[in-house]
Amino acid sequence: xxxxxxxxxxxxxxxxxxxxxxxxxxxxxxxxxxxxxxxxxxxxxxxxxxxxxxxxxxxxxxxxxxxxxxxxxxxxxxxxxxxxxxxxxxxxxxxxxxxxxxxxxxxxxxxxxxxxxxxxxxxxxxxxxxxxxxxxxxxxxxxxxxxxxxxxxxxxxxxxxxxxxxxxxxxxxxxxxxxxxxxxxxxxxxxxxxxxxxxxxxxxxxxxxxxxxxxxxxxxxxxxxxxxxxxxxxxxxxxxxxxxxxxxxxxxxxx
Length: 255
Prior knowledge:
Elements: E1 2-10, H1 27-39, E2 46-47, E3 56-66, H2 72-83, E4 88-96, E5 108-116, E6 130-131, H3 138-145, E7 150-153, E8 168-179, E9 182-189, H4 196-208, H5 215-223, E10 238-244, H6 246-254
Helix pairs in contact: 1-2, 3-4
Protein backbone atom coordinates (compact mmCIF):
# COMPACT_ATOMS: atom_id res chain seq x y z
CA UNK A 1 0.00 0.00 0.00
CA UNK A 2 1.39 3.40 -0.99
CA UNK A 3 0.26 6.71 0.45
CA UNK A 4 0.06 9.52 -2.12
CA UNK A 5 -0.12 13.16 -1.04
CA UNK A 6 -2.10 15.35 -3.43
CA UNK A 7 -2.36 19.10 -3.86
CA UNK A 8 -5.81 20.01 -5.16
CA UNK A 9 -7.10 23.11 -6.86
CA UNK A 10 -10.86 23.42 -7.33
CA UNK A 11 -13.72 25.73 -8.14
CA UNK A 12 -16.28 25.06 -5.43
CA UNK A 13 -19.23 26.55 -7.33
CA UNK A 14 -20.85 23.28 -8.51
CA UNK A 15 -20.10 21.31 -5.36
CA UNK A 16 -21.95 20.88 -2.07
CA UNK A 17 -18.56 21.13 -0.39
CA UNK A 18 -15.30 19.21 -0.22
CA UNK A 19 -16.62 16.36 1.91
CA UNK A 20 -18.78 13.65 0.31
CA UNK A 21 -22.48 14.48 0.63
CA UNK A 22 -25.60 12.36 0.20
CA UNK A 23 -27.54 15.25 -1.36
CA UNK A 24 -25.17 16.44 -4.09
CA UNK A 25 -21.74 16.36 -5.75
CA UNK A 26 -18.56 16.95 -3.77
CA UNK A 27 -14.83 17.31 -4.42
CA UNK A 28 -14.19 14.13 -2.43
CA UNK A 29 -16.60 12.17 -4.60
CA UNK A 30 -14.95 13.43 -7.80
CA UNK A 31 -11.46 12.38 -6.62
CA UNK A 32 -12.54 9.03 -5.15
CA UNK A 33 -14.59 8.04 -8.21
CA UNK A 34 -11.62 8.78 -10.46
CA UNK A 35 -9.25 6.85 -8.18
CA UNK A 36 -11.60 3.87 -8.15
CA UNK A 37 -11.71 3.86 -11.95
CA UNK A 38 -7.90 3.86 -12.10
CA UNK A 39 -7.23 1.23 -9.43
CA UNK A 40 -10.37 -0.86 -9.05
CA UNK A 41 -10.01 -0.22 -5.32
CA UNK A 42 -12.31 1.46 -2.79
CA UNK A 43 -10.17 4.52 -2.10
CA UNK A 44 -10.92 7.10 0.60
CA UNK A 45 -9.61 10.66 0.34
CA UNK A 46 -8.51 12.44 3.51
CA UNK A 47 -8.09 16.23 3.27
CA UNK A 48 -6.41 18.93 5.34
CA UNK A 49 -9.67 20.80 5.78
CA UNK A 50 -13.34 20.88 4.93
CA UNK A 51 -14.85 23.53 2.71
CA UNK A 52 -18.50 24.49 2.38
CA UNK A 53 -20.58 24.64 -0.78
CA UNK A 54 -19.22 27.33 -3.10
CA UNK A 55 -15.83 27.65 -1.37
CA UNK A 56 -12.72 27.28 -3.55
CA UNK A 57 -9.17 26.00 -3.05
CA UNK A 58 -5.82 26.94 -4.54
CA UNK A 59 -3.78 24.30 -2.69
CA UNK A 60 -5.83 21.88 -0.60
CA UNK A 61 -3.69 18.97 0.61
CA UNK A 62 -5.12 15.45 0.68
CA UNK A 63 -3.95 11.84 0.63
CA UNK A 64 -4.99 8.49 -0.83
CA UNK A 65 -3.82 4.97 0.05
CA UNK A 66 -3.48 2.82 -3.08
CA UNK A 67 -2.31 -0.78 -3.48
CA UNK A 68 -1.90 -0.76 -7.27
CA UNK A 69 1.70 0.07 -8.31
CA UNK A 70 1.65 3.60 -9.72
CA UNK A 71 4.10 6.46 -9.99
CA UNK A 72 2.97 9.85 -8.63
CA UNK A 73 3.09 11.32 -12.14
CA UNK A 74 0.95 8.56 -13.61
CA UNK A 75 -1.60 8.86 -10.81
CA UNK A 76 -1.80 12.64 -11.16
CA UNK A 77 -2.25 12.45 -14.93
CA UNK A 78 -4.90 9.74 -14.66
CA UNK A 79 -6.87 11.56 -11.95
CA UNK A 80 -6.85 14.79 -13.94
CA UNK A 81 -8.05 12.99 -17.06
CA UNK A 82 -10.88 11.14 -15.32
CA UNK A 83 -12.15 14.03 -13.19
CA UNK A 84 -13.05 16.06 -16.27
CA UNK A 85 -15.30 18.00 -16.66
CA UNK A 86 -15.44 18.58 -12.89
CA UNK A 87 -13.47 21.75 -12.01
CA UNK A 88 -10.92 19.87 -9.87
CA UNK A 89 -7.21 19.49 -10.66
CA UNK A 90 -4.33 17.67 -8.99
CA UNK A 91 -1.46 20.17 -9.27
CA UNK A 92 1.11 18.06 -7.40
CA UNK A 93 1.44 14.42 -6.29
CA UNK A 94 4.11 12.65 -4.25
CA UNK A 95 4.57 9.54 -2.15
CA UNK A 96 4.76 10.04 1.62
CA UNK A 97 5.31 7.84 4.65
CA UNK A 98 2.38 5.90 6.08
CA UNK A 99 2.38 8.06 9.22
CA UNK A 100 1.86 11.28 7.21
CA UNK A 101 -1.79 12.33 7.37
CA UNK A 102 -3.29 15.21 5.39
CA UNK A 103 -5.51 16.24 8.29
CA UNK A 104 -3.82 15.11 11.49
CA UNK A 105 -0.24 16.00 10.49
CA UNK A 106 -1.28 19.52 9.49
CA UNK A 107 0.14 22.27 11.72
CA UNK A 108 -1.70 25.20 10.20
CA UNK A 109 -4.18 26.32 7.59
CA UNK A 110 -4.59 29.59 5.71
CA UNK A 111 -7.55 31.10 3.88
CA UNK A 112 -7.94 34.13 1.66
CA UNK A 113 -11.16 36.05 1.11
CA UNK A 114 -11.57 38.30 -1.93
CA UNK A 115 -13.99 41.24 -2.08
CA UNK A 116 -14.31 43.13 -5.36
CA UNK A 117 -15.17 46.66 -4.30
CA UNK A 118 -16.85 48.24 -7.34
CA UNK A 119 -20.27 49.12 -8.71
CA UNK A 120 -19.91 47.45 -12.13
CA UNK A 121 -21.17 43.84 -12.25
CA UNK A 122 -18.65 41.02 -12.01
CA UNK A 123 -17.89 39.15 -15.21
CA UNK A 124 -14.63 37.17 -15.00
CA UNK A 125 -14.83 36.88 -11.21
CA UNK A 126 -18.51 36.10 -10.91
CA UNK A 127 -18.85 33.33 -8.33
CA UNK A 128 -15.17 33.78 -7.40
CA UNK A 129 -15.46 36.91 -5.24
CA UNK A 130 -17.96 38.85 -3.15
CA UNK A 131 -18.98 42.08 -4.82
CA UNK A 132 -19.51 45.06 -2.51
CA UNK A 133 -20.56 48.16 -4.44
CA UNK A 134 -20.14 50.83 -1.75
CA UNK A 135 -16.58 51.97 -0.91
CA UNK A 136 -14.81 49.95 1.79
CA UNK A 137 -12.29 51.44 4.24
CA UNK A 138 -9.78 48.58 4.20
CA UNK A 139 -7.50 50.32 6.72
CA UNK A 140 -10.32 50.47 9.29
CA UNK A 141 -11.10 46.81 8.56
CA UNK A 142 -7.48 45.84 9.22
CA UNK A 143 -7.37 47.75 12.50
CA UNK A 144 -10.61 46.15 13.69
CA UNK A 145 -9.37 42.69 12.67
CA UNK A 146 -6.49 42.79 15.13
CA UNK A 147 -8.93 42.37 18.04
CA UNK A 148 -9.60 38.84 16.76
CA UNK A 149 -5.96 37.73 16.63
CA UNK A 150 -4.89 35.45 19.47
CA UNK A 151 -6.57 32.79 21.61
CA UNK A 152 -10.29 33.51 22.05
CA UNK A 153 -13.72 31.99 22.43
CA UNK A 154 -15.10 32.48 18.90
CA UNK A 155 -18.70 31.48 19.65
CA UNK A 156 -19.99 34.65 17.94
CA UNK A 157 -18.19 33.65 14.74
CA UNK A 158 -19.17 29.99 14.83
CA UNK A 159 -21.96 28.36 12.83
CA UNK A 160 -24.78 26.84 14.87
CA UNK A 161 -24.03 23.63 12.94
CA UNK A 162 -20.35 23.59 13.94
CA UNK A 163 -19.29 20.18 15.29
CA UNK A 164 -16.05 21.30 16.98
CA UNK A 165 -15.86 20.33 20.66
CA UNK A 166 -14.76 23.80 21.75
CA UNK A 167 -15.30 27.32 20.38
CA UNK A 168 -11.82 28.32 21.56
CA UNK A 169 -9.29 28.78 18.75
CA UNK A 170 -6.00 30.63 18.28
CA UNK A 171 -6.04 32.94 15.29
CA UNK A 172 -2.42 33.53 14.26
CA UNK A 173 -3.00 36.22 11.64
CA UNK A 174 -5.83 38.28 10.18
CA UNK A 175 -4.86 40.99 7.71
CA UNK A 176 -6.75 43.23 5.31
CA UNK A 177 -5.18 44.92 2.30
CA UNK A 178 -6.31 46.46 -0.96
CA UNK A 179 -5.00 45.70 -4.44
CA UNK A 180 -6.77 48.11 -6.76
CA UNK A 181 -10.48 47.42 -6.54
CA UNK A 182 -9.97 44.13 -4.66
CA UNK A 183 -9.90 43.93 -0.86
CA UNK A 184 -8.09 40.80 0.33
CA UNK A 185 -8.50 39.33 3.83
CA UNK A 186 -5.97 36.69 4.88
CA UNK A 187 -6.51 34.42 7.89
CA UNK A 188 -4.13 31.83 9.35
CA UNK A 189 -4.59 29.44 12.29
CA UNK A 190 -3.95 25.85 13.24
CA UNK A 191 -7.64 25.19 12.60
CA UNK A 192 -10.90 27.07 12.17
CA UNK A 193 -14.48 26.71 13.30
CA UNK A 194 -17.30 26.17 10.80
CA UNK A 195 -18.04 29.52 9.10
CA UNK A 196 -15.43 31.31 11.25
CA UNK A 197 -13.63 33.04 8.37
CA UNK A 198 -16.82 34.05 6.57
CA UNK A 199 -18.29 35.37 9.82
CA UNK A 200 -15.19 37.42 10.59
CA UNK A 201 -15.13 38.83 7.06
CA UNK A 202 -18.80 39.79 7.27
CA UNK A 203 -18.22 41.81 10.44
CA UNK A 204 -15.10 43.46 9.02
CA UNK A 205 -17.13 44.46 5.97
CA UNK A 206 -19.62 46.16 8.29
CA UNK A 207 -16.71 48.22 9.64
CA UNK A 208 -15.43 48.97 6.15
CA UNK A 209 -18.88 50.23 5.12
CA UNK A 210 -19.08 52.47 8.17
CA UNK A 211 -22.04 50.59 9.65
CA UNK A 212 -19.99 49.39 12.64
CA UNK A 213 -17.48 51.21 14.80
CA UNK A 214 -14.07 49.48 14.76
CA UNK A 215 -14.47 48.61 18.45
CA UNK A 216 -17.69 46.73 17.78
CA UNK A 217 -15.74 43.76 16.35
CA UNK A 218 -14.07 43.30 19.74
CA UNK A 219 -17.44 43.73 21.43
CA UNK A 220 -18.98 41.05 19.20
CA UNK A 221 -16.14 38.69 20.09
CA UNK A 222 -16.57 39.35 23.81
CA UNK A 223 -20.32 38.72 23.58
CA UNK A 224 -19.74 35.02 22.78
CA UNK A 225 -23.17 35.05 21.20
CA UNK A 226 -24.05 34.25 17.57
CA UNK A 227 -26.79 36.89 17.79
CA UNK A 228 -24.03 39.54 18.03
CA UNK A 229 -22.80 38.64 14.52
CA UNK A 230 -23.30 41.41 12.00
CA UNK A 231 -23.10 39.45 8.75
CA UNK A 232 -21.93 36.08 7.41
CA UNK A 233 -20.09 36.71 4.13
CA UNK A 234 -21.08 34.54 1.13
CA UNK A 235 -18.89 31.58 0.16
CA UNK A 236 -18.00 32.93 -3.29
CA UNK A 237 -14.89 34.85 -2.22
CA UNK A 238 -13.36 32.26 0.12
CA UNK A 239 -10.29 30.23 -0.90
CA UNK A 240 -8.28 27.62 0.99
CA UNK A 241 -4.74 28.67 0.11
CA UNK A 242 -2.26 26.75 2.23
CA UNK A 243 -1.74 23.83 4.60
CA UNK A 244 1.47 23.70 6.66
CA UNK A 245 3.17 20.46 7.73
CA UNK A 246 6.19 19.65 9.94
CA UNK A 247 8.48 19.41 6.91
CA UNK A 248 7.33 22.85 5.73
CA UNK A 249 7.88 24.38 9.16
CA UNK A 250 11.38 22.86 9.35
CA UNK A 251 12.23 24.36 5.98
CA UNK A 252 11.01 27.79 7.08
CA UNK A 253 13.16 27.63 10.23
CA UNK A 254 16.27 26.74 8.21
CA UNK A 255 15.54 29.55 5.79
